[in-house]
Amino acid sequence: MFEPNYLDMNCDILKKIKQITWAELLLLEDIRMGDDIWSLMSSLKWLRRSWYADNINDKVIYIDIAMEFMIDGEKVAPIYKDETMEQIKQKLNEIKCHNINRILSLIKEPSFNMKLHSMIDRLKIQVSENDLILLERIRDERNEIIHGRRECDMDELEIALANNIVCMMVIKKLYSLRDYQ
User: Fold this and answer.
1) 3-state SS assignment for residue 97
2) Domain range for residue 169?
3) Which terminus of the chain has a lower count of CB atoms within 10 Å, N or C?
4) Alpha-carbon dihedral angle through residues 167, 169, 174, 176, given to the nearest 10 degrees
5) In a domain? residue 97
6) What pLDDT shows up at residue 15?
7) What is the pTM for the complete model shown?
8) pLDDT tens figures, 143-153
């Protein structure tokens, strides 16, 4: 029986393995996935980027992107009843407000936190109050960074913990979808 002593790979293969983008492409091409699974795979991709980023600001931004993909498609009960929305529309018309439709869509759109809490409740994900505070802090830090107000002041341990929390939530959501495929 022949057993090789070593494995020889050319530079192109090594480059692809190092970047690991080929694995993502394989998953996206070979698995016929709906938008839910695609969003969760994208979330995992951004989590991985957060793990390997050299810059702490990048880590925070990537975790935030991962969370956005994670909650994508979450259904939340309407904030206002249709009658209330109609009253708001009438008041905006009375004061001759411009961009009424844009304002109404902003009022109707559930917040990130509403979607996150809805997902946590729906999937019965066990997270502590401290976990939620940490994820909220990631969102706040991201806003500070992208608006140029300051650099991130979180430490690596907090970033790693936030990554773990989001990863656990993504895995829970993936498991919830397997029964519907």
Assistant:
1) coil
2) 34-77+111-178
3) N
4) 160
5) no
6) 59
7) 0.72
8) 999 998 999 99
